[in-house]
Amino acid sequence: MQTKYYFLIIFSLFFTASIFAQPPQKMSYQAVVRDQQNHLVTNQAIGVKISILKNSPLGHSVYTETHSTTTNGSGLMTIEVGAGTPTPTSIFDSIDWSRNSYYLKSEIDITGGTNYTLIGTQQLITVPYAFFAKSFAEGDYNRLYNTPTGNNTGDILYWNSNDSTWHIISAGSEGQVLTMTANGIPQWHTTIFNQSLPPSIITDSVFSITGYTMRVAATILDPGTTGIIASGVCWSETNPSPSIGNNNTTDGSGTGSFVSNVAGLKSNTRYYVRAYATNSIGTSYGNVLVITTPTHCGTVTDYDGNVYNTVYIGRQCWFKENLRTTHYADGNIVQKAPNISLTRYADMAHTQNGNSVWYFCNHDSTTKADRGLLYTWHAVMKGAGSSDNNPSGILGVCPYGWHVPSSSEWCELENNLNPGIDITCSNANFRGTMAKVLAKPKYWSSYTNNSFTPGYWHTDSTGFNITDFSLIPTGYIYERESSWSSGWDSYCGNTSYHYHYIYARTGITTDAYFWTSSSGKSRQINYSETGIKLATGVTLTNAYSVRCIKDY
User: Quick one: which of 211, 354, 218, 337 has its CA closest to 286?
Assistant: First the structure.
């Protein structure tokens, strides 16, 4: 089953600490709950886990509590942070808001249980300082360091981290506005200054996350006083506070809410993400959200009930197993080629219309689970015409939502692995060094006595399957040359077949062959080579393996 992700869009966050009484410290937290398709989750019991982290989005948890609540008809849920069920060692009132910065981490189980999914982490700005002000107003002045002495009514106390000292700023005059200088020092200005303010923006949520893309929702709360020049999203793998100096999108000069489409991500990678807005005064940033891209796009089940694992490579999501279905997605049968002996198949070029058939590798049904099936090109295409588009648009023999990759899509895979090695993949020879990074070591090292060109893989077992593509040799079914006996035979890399081809055709080693949706074009990975080969003019009655690729 494909993993589900659920998203919270922050709606409000209020503090309820009183400076005149002794009620428990707590924060009112409201959120709109949406599912993976961005649909509201209404009138549903949900489980919520809240953690307070110290100093960073990945910091130590100083407090954790859980809630069981129910969304209303608008998908809104409301809880009070500090009033949930704390973990045994968690004491909300013991958090020292005066000493550190704090972050609120949200997790949710949309089923109402405790199998929580991380939603996001955001810095607490106003609430901790309100709690600190509460303790100060209740007479806990001695908790402060370097306590200064005020001289006049209205003097304001502030902390300067540059010298680790508390300071006094005198009360301003009527009509003045308290602002911050570039170095973080509060300063009084006249109301004229207030006519030149930067924008205000929040990062609402990150959703539709793949191994290559994500979508980020944000809201410009206030354009400032000079109008928005640019807005968008910035992200980074390493910078916990990404800026427009890092990766960023540009989404126009409008106001209100917008959704930014981000591409060019890497799978299985953590990213820091936040929205930005710029006017003539400056650039403002929203709260930082932390996400991790997936390594795959779930599992896929074909008509026969076979389940396939997947893997992201660049923006493409591939099957990491060879296709083994005997039916098309609509339930129509793919014909099996008749077996006329243990080592020979009938010549389907003359007996089967369009050669729409499949074979067991080595004519052995026990190879199906491991190596998949071998299909003729007509069986793969299901009557569709040739396509070299990217994406191909050919469903063919693949399950719904997936398609037969074109030669151009295989070329994109190759350039993801070896950028610039052959941009158009026009070289008919083996290209690059990507073969081993696609391959499991399984079966490739069967022939240790080969005398082919140096570099065949049994002498170097390192570097296999770095991409998790999980390739193994499957070979092909083909019509013998005219000098050989008539009929069909197979080659899948087993020792029992290998001696025959060494004798008849020197240089044949373990191979994996894959169809493309481009007529007469296939991909070959060879035991004695390091790269991938584009084969052209391939006989369409041959039978090769198939890897499906996800629609996007």
Answer: 218
The DSSP symbol for 339 reads B
Q: What is the mean pLDDT of residues 367-379?
A: 90
* Domains 7-134 and 200-292 in one fold: yes
Query: What's the predicted TM-score (pTM) here?
Result: 0.59
Distance CA 447, CA 498 (A): 9
- Domain extent listing, the chain: 7-134, 145-195, 200-292, 300-550
pLDDT for 10 equals: 45
For residue 57, is the peptide bond before it cis, meaning its omega torsion is within 30 degrees of 0? Answer: no
Largest CA-CA distance found in the chain, in angstroms, rounded: 108
Q: Where are the alpha helices (DSSP H) in 327-391?
A: 348-351, 368-371, 377-381
Distance CA 262, CA 162 (A): 37
**Residue linked to tokens 């949200």:** 106
CA dihedral sign of residues 521, 533, 462, 312: negative
Half-sphere exposure in the Cβ direction for 428 (13 Å, CA): 5
The verdict on domain 200-292 having CATH code 2.60.40.10 is yes
Distance, in Å, from the CA atom of 262 to the CA atom of 323, rounded to the nearest integer, reads 31
- Which pLDDT score, from 0 to 100, does residue 38 have? 79
CA angle 292, 293, 298 (to 5 degrees): 125
- Separation of alpha carbons 476 and 489, rounded Å: 9
Q: Which residue has the higher pLDDT, 461 or 524?
A: 524
**Cross-strand pairs, 27:** 15, 81
Higher-confidence residue of 496 and 405: namely 405
* 110 contacts 33 by C-beta, under 8 angstroms: yes
Structure tokens at 341: 């002996």
The CATH number of 7-134 is 2.60.40.10
pLDDT band, residue 252 (cuts 50/70/90)? confident
DSSP-assigned letters across all residues of 417-466: HSTTS-TT----S-BTT-HHHHB-STTTT--TT--SSTT-GGG--TTTTT
